[in-house]
Amino acid sequence: MANTVQIPVPALNKEISVSTGLFINNEFVPSVDSSEVIQCFNPATEEIIASVVAGSSKDIDVAVAAARKAFKTSWGKNVTGWERSRLINKLADLIERDAQELAELETLNNGKPVAIARDFDIGDSIQCLRYYAGWADKITGQTIEVDNKSKMAFTRHEPIGVCGQIIPWNYPINMWAWKVAPALAVGCTIVMKPSELTPLTALKLSELVVEAGFPPGVINTVPSLGSIGGAALSAHPDVDKIAFTGSTLTGRKIMEAAAKSNLKKVSLELGGKSPQLIFESADLQQAAAWSALGICYNTGQDCTAGSRIYVQDTVYDKFIDVLVSTVKETVIGNGFDQKTGGGPLVSKAQFDRVWGYIDAGKAEGAKVVLGGERRNTKGFFVDPTIFTDVSSDMKIVKEEIFGPVLSIGRFKTEEEAVALANNTTYGLGAGLHSTDASQCMRVSGLLEAGTVWVNSYNLLSNNVPFGGKKQSGIGRELGSYALEEYTSVKAVHWNIGEKLQWPL
User: What is the pTM of this model?
Assistant: First the structure.
């Protein structure tokens, strides 16, 4: 039996109990062969809050075997859609019951404000589970006419099997739900590898999996380094599908490993360098508010962060003034402070990475109109930083930063705006702000992104598909489209009357 640790929450004068082992077959267990641990930090204080077992490749083997056994016996095609729905809904109920404690644990390990973790991340995760619970008994195929006198065909949408799911650190609970919910709905079993930076809430959610009544082996959680656990899952010959959210660089490695092993199905939600276009007809106050959300929400640690803004020259100066005053209202601080709208960056490495980009922007001649100054306090805090006078060859314009750093350029014509927006290797999200309906239709059709927001930004719905184009990934999450990522279609040809004459 693995250990349990009591994690203090000084701001609330309480403790949260978390099991620190690997979750396999509905039990928390030690590693088969690893004595390594993953240290979990509080990014607001830079202090270690817990250490959890670091799984090895052999632990991945054990977890995959457990998932395979469950798929063949107690899950997969062996349980009805109604039963899958009941259990997923029960899990959602338990997460809703424990939302406050889960949010506090998320804040300790990730840094984001408690209220945002509870009301947005966890609230959306509960809705996501319930949405897919509703799908569990509605997985249907087609009956296809071949020859009404002698033949028929039909299709079955079957669970693809054992799924390796690798989630990032920026939305630990939300990404857990996005991956788990559709997989469970269709009957897949799961080996989950949370980020080594933020494994605590995935372990806490695993306790609720048992309480909800899922059979052993349906959901397994193996905290591990990406180079070990993630690599082992990607190359495992008995894993049928990999779902990954993270960097484009890692996504390439996963695709290569999947291809070299058993050609397992892969879905990838990768990086972004998402643009927003501000046209002269836009409501500038609203455009500024949505732009602020696009770069400040989650302290810019968002794949769809609207990190490039292009403004029509006729309203450029006015928009800059409105945007700067809007972003100034953002409070970056400790997530347990009710006034905080954004927390610290997740780690020292991410903190150094973001400051490297800010320094590069200054060195390349971009103008800082807000932020860009370091705090002399503990914690990985970076205040929103806005650059103007940028050019397309600057690092801050070309590369994903994953922090609250915004570049603002200008354009004259609609054609120029679209060209600037699409001048990127990424294609995850894009936004445009205009009160000209015809322009909204034209430009939304021309933008090369998997999601386009018109007069809003960064809000997603569980019933609307999400995913990228170009180097932002393949496949879709959310909506009915996500079900396709976890199913394989079987065609059945049924001869009801044709007699074969032999030889031909």
Answer: 0.96
